[in-house]
Amino acid sequence: MIVGIFVKQGQTTEFAPVKIFCDELDKFGIECVFSDNLSSADLLVIFGGDGTFLTAKNLAVKYGLPMVGINTGNVGFLSAFESDDVKSAAKCIYEGSLIFSERSLIEVECKGEKFLALNDAVIERDKTSVGNSVMAKLKLEIDGSHIFDLNSDGIIVSSPTGSTAYSLSAGGVVLSPDIKAFIATPICSHSLNSLPIVFSDDKEVKVSVLNNSCNSLLCCDGRAVKTLSEGDEVLIKKSESFLSIAESHSDFFTKLKEKLGK
Q1: pTM of the full predicted structure?
Q2: 50 a catalytic residue
Q3: Phi, psi angles (nearest 5°) of residue 146
Q4: Active-site residue identified among 23, 50, 143, 149
Q5: Low-confidence ranges of the chain (pLDDT < 70)
Q6: Which domains does the chain have, with CATH numbers?
Q7: What is the DSSP string of 12-28?
Q8: Is 17:41 a contact under the CB 8 Å cutoff?
Q9: Which residues have a Cβ under 8 Å from the Cβ of 179 and sit 6 or more positions away?
Q10: Beta-carbon neighbour count of residue 31 at 10 Å?
């Protein structure tokens, strides 16, 4: 077995948890390779927080690798292990005792380009924009049905995995990972009628930038990928690809309380 390693930006392969982990795997006769050499890897282990995990997901999709998170960041909601538990992580890999769950990915299409997100696709006002308005004016459609127009800071379309991230901070509900649904959550809407909507993940979402809107940004998993202006459209649907992510020993609701209940 060959284990790929992805480390948080600014950390090196000499970072103590990484070194301990690799030394432990070496005792079991398991080879480690790093993120510039993943073509022969069977598994991708990520050292960092949730941001690092989301960055690494593109490599996991490219090489078809299951993901195991070891939290050396802050919240680490996507991680199966904490930084002081690297020896246990190595032992679980050796024993083949890890439990994986399949997580939906979001496919986002805009201006002829496609992007993948694990957590969410966000259309939000560009706070540096100078124009007719400092407000994002957006139209939400689901499977061709007009849901509402928004005067707001933007809208979040999240997967169940992403429902505990930005969407939750904006007032969205939590979806357990096994629910086959997405959630559309307005950001600071100027209307009492614009509430979060949960819908089946087999439906396609279209978000359009309306007249007199300020410029907006399309962000996938927290990274800006496109600038949007009046008339631009974003199409969002469930991807045919998915990720296999190692689960922690705590069940989802226990982990929810441990990580976000403080």
Answers
A1: 0.91
A2: yes
A3: -75, 115
A4: 50
A5: 10-14, 129-133, 262
A6: 2-99+247-260 (3.40.50.10330), 106-240 (2.60.200.30)
A7: -TTSHHHHHHHHHHHHT
A8: no
A9: 160
A10: 13
